[in-house]
What does this fold into?
Amino acid sequence: MEYPIHTLLYRTVHRQRNVLRPYLRALGLGTGQPRLLMHLVQAGPFSQKHLADHLEVDPSAVCRMLDSLEKGGFVVRGADKTDRRAGLVEITEKGRCAVADWQRTGRAIDRRMLGGFTEAEARQLVEYLERVSANLQQIGRGPLAEKEVAP
Amino acid sequence: MEYPIHTLLYRTVHRQRNVLRPYLRALGLGTGQPRLLMHLVQAGPFSQKHLADHLEVDPSAVCRMLDSLEKGGFVVRGADKTDRRAGLVEITEKGRCAVADWQRTGRAIDRRMLGGFTEAEARQLVEYLERVSANLQQIGRGPLAEKEVAP
DNA sequence: TATCAATGATTGATATATCAATTTTATATC
DNA sequence: GATATAAAATTGATATATCAATCATTGATA
It folds into this structure.
């Protein structure tokens, strides 16, 4: 059976999420939270606006993710003294530990996902995915085709 | 910056969903619904249990997706005369049309996602993804490693 | 300076998911 | 045949998303 590429990708990530979930759950995290924490670890406190831009999600999604993360003690919401609308989200020590733990598990899962791949194949897959990802970002910025799909 | 493969996949599909959404919305569909409708088109009425197995999702997800699809007139829930617990989900004419429309758009998006890929590269990407997908299914069936990740 | 538009955070509605619990019906065992 | 267990569908709670609306503050301008 021939599946379109978007269907194949969808199913792959669906399975991936189901594999990751129990390991994240053991750390008290949801499936979308590591990306956010990771970014905080790498480069200090950020506004929610910045996080939303970085993660390419709606600001409201960030807001609710932070509700959960803050309740779990992984981050704290502070105030930005230069702009009283904005907040500054900071990672806690517990958050740093969770990220470190997760990175170990994540590496192990990556190895399993790429089981049977040679080094060269793995590199090539990454390159392909980066190209597809870049193409998708382009599509997002304009119409699907010069003449639209539905005439 | 080097990203783990699972992060790259996650972001790719996130972008994909955001690209697909407006086209699906124009048809009155959500981002998970085409897979379900497609399967119904290909092989007649199914129980919800069967659909859940096929889509690899929780039965409750199917149930709520059908609530929405039925309200939109894309499917009807009938009764299975041989088993009064089960139902039989059937696609409507409107559902068939939506699938046909969607397939045209989906093919166009696939082409754009693979923009810059040669035929051979595209085939190879599909093959790689199928291998990763199969690996993920395997992982789902057992522990991550002989000696677990957290020692 | 007073007003008005833009921005950052939030909340409500909905779709997609899981997990847990419940209901109804089938099947298996005693 | 009565009871116990399993299976199919559903509902409630929560996480991840979008979209739309709201609130407070900020910035630009008339």
The beta strands of chain B are 75-79, 87-91.
